[in-house]
Design a protein that fits this description.
Elements (H helix, E strand, L loop, with lengths): L9 E7 L1 E2 L11 E2 L6 H15 L8 E8 L7 H14 L2 E11 L6 H10 L3 E7 L3 H7 L5 H13 L5 E7 L6 H14 L3 E6 L7 H4 L7 H17 L3 E4 L2 E3 L6 H7 L3 E6 L3 E6 L4 E7 L3 H6 L3 E5 L2 H12 L6 E2 H8 L7 H9 L10 E2 L3 H5 L1 H6 L3
Parallel strand pairs: 1-4, 1-11, 2-3, 4-5, 5-6, 6-7, 7-8
Antiparallel strand pairs: 8-10, 9-10, 12-13, 13-14, 15-16
Length: 380
Amino acid sequence: MPVFSTLPPLSLYVHLPWCVRKCPYCDFNSHQARGELPEAAYVDALLRDLEEELPRVWGRRVQTVFIGGGTPSLFPPAAIEHLLAGIRARIALSSNAEITLEANPGTLDNSRLAEFRAAGINRLSLGIQSFDNACLQRLGRIHDAAQARAAFETARRAGFDNINIDLMYALPGQTLAQARHDVATAIALQPEHVSYYQLTLEPNTWFHRHPPILPDEDTGWAIQCQGVELLEQAGYVQYEVSAFAREAYRCRHNLNYWKFGDYLGIGAGAHGKLSDAQHNHIERSWKTRHPQTYIQEPSRQQRLLGEHDIVLEFMMNALRLKQGVDLALFTQHTGLDQTVLRQACDKALQRGLLQPLESGRLCASTRGWRFLDDLISLFC
């Protein structure tokens, strides 16, 4: 049973589930927008949802807010402003809270971006995925390379000084040269953060049912190594498996996930994780998935995590970080004694997948980071 001396930091995730078109690789709870979006009704439901969560987090302050989707930038700035004002009226935000909005380059213009900035968004995450028009078409994206570059430049003019670019690699038909061009183009724009991750064929997606021809394993590995090298040469520090940042621009919201922090999840299909010091447990929760049902009644389901679940989830997240985490953080954020890790850590050390614990850190070795799934499987 977890016993907490202090509670982990708290974040807030807000899910806006609509998009212009469902991408064939997307396994998120997203729905194609048909007609006018029920913006006012949905924001009202989000705020009712948050009010229902408040008794579980009395006295706690939110450090980061992440508005994801779907395509949140489909919502007009006035709706985002109303949402953020409603959040601030109900729960305390840190004075320097990181507030991120995910955006699709095909849904942006100068006035819209400036209004998002004025509404309180201080970090923008652009889902560009590629700067190659053929790759973008095969991915089902609604923007082209020129729109992607224009969206970034427009965001800069609108006052955004903390921008993430999402790039995918090992795309259908992608060559090593095309992948290099993608990374080089992103670097030339000089974003503060780059999320660089491999396309995977997730269950319940069009690509999973109709698999495209992807680069072979050797080519995929060469593309990954090339991208990492280019980003690091340009001054981006790889701090997580798929995350690269300039100094002081690591994504605080995602770091809270990776360090097993707490977070409220509001919105259709949103998930949350909360530690309860009074009852000594950790709870996972999830909300009604369908947007229209959610608008009518944003109901909540939950389950308590057992010791095995807690250990596995902590390690799955923490070991993604290149520098790992302080060993003491395990007890602080799980409420469990470090002795529960001993057997699996001993096996990982014997196989050279984990760095020596004498350093005071839980950190994958170079080999362990390369074969991260093998390392994490030892804690299953």
